[in-house]
Amino acid sequence: MSERTTALVTGANKGIGYEIAAGLGALGWSVGVGARDDGRREAAVERLRAAGADAFGVPLDVTDDASVTAAAQLIEERAGRLDVLVNNAGITGGLPQEPTRVDPADIRTVVETNVIGIVRVTNAMLPLLRRSASPRIVNMSSSVGSLTRQSGTATETTTGPVAAAYAPSKTFLNAVTVQYARELRDTDILINLGCPGFVATDLNGFRGVRTPEQGAAIAIELATLPDDGPTGGFFEDAGVVPW
Ligand SMILES: NC(=O)c1ccc[n+]([C@@H]2O[C@H](COP(=O)([O-])OP(=O)(O)OC[C@H]3O[C@@H](n4cnc5c(N)ncnc54)[C@H](OP(=O)(O)O)[C@@H]3O)[C@@H](O)[C@H]2O)c1
């Protein structure tokens, strides 16, 4: 079994996921770069290695059972276990997404990646995570999944545009994560949700105001929680995000 702490970051070829991989690599960890496109994955692995990280490519489409099974096998062969899983891959499904006009198929597509994809990857990796002394799972959510913030007045707390697929997919993810935390409460596994803030990436046409590195910070914090750290929580840099 590998001596090094081993992490897997999904959707690590660009944006926040790439910076999470870079941040974990800078800790001296071995980092699996989960990405579905061969060229984009290998380019990211090369960049991370050039920066001194022990990065390795993990072909991974979170919507594909066979791909996720193969990813778990690859990590088992390479490291024998997994210490940290960061479920970062996500899509918006395209905006605008008004509930009164949305194509139901678009909701299904977003949930398939942002929720079911995370369940698929997490359950495939759990046998490897259970072999770790301090397993951590970080699910990248968004404050747009906060019902409290979504139901504030526009000038007060409402965050993000009206969206029938993306925002509810994060609310769904939050709810599923709480259920994992309940089931895993008597294990060493800590599972939490992180919100990166509004980050300039492909996801929003680079309209965000934070850098991907800033967005990655909360995931790195949750990936490195001490054994007595929280589980089943929802956090941003400033602290707890209301449900
Ligand atoms: N940017 C923000 O302001 C913001 C705010 C709150 C939360 N978030 C969350 O942060 C996470 C990262 O977002 P980002 O802003 O960094 O977006 P991004 O730059 O668009 O990156 C998304 C990543 O997810 C990957 N991905 C999408 N579908 C996938 C699939 N089926 N299988 C594997 N990988 C897949 C993409 O791969 P490809 O390159 O192959 O498409 C890409 O690597 C997402 O969960 C997002 O919801 C972002």
UniProtKB/TrEMBL annotation:
Q: Tell me which InterPro entries the record gives.
A: CBR1-like, NAD(P)-bd_dom_sf, SDR_fam
Keywords of this entry:
NADP, Oxidoreductase
Query: Has UniProt tagged this entry with the keyword RNA-binding?
Result: no
List the Gene3D superfamilies hit by this protein, alphabetically. NAD(P)-binding Rossmann-like Domain
Pfam families assigned to the protein according to its UniProt record, in alphabetical order: adh_short (PF00106)
**Family per UniProt?**
Belongs to the short-chain dehydrogenases/reductases (SDR) family.
Output this protein's name: SDR family oxidoreductase
The organism encoding this protein is: Streptomyces castrisilvae
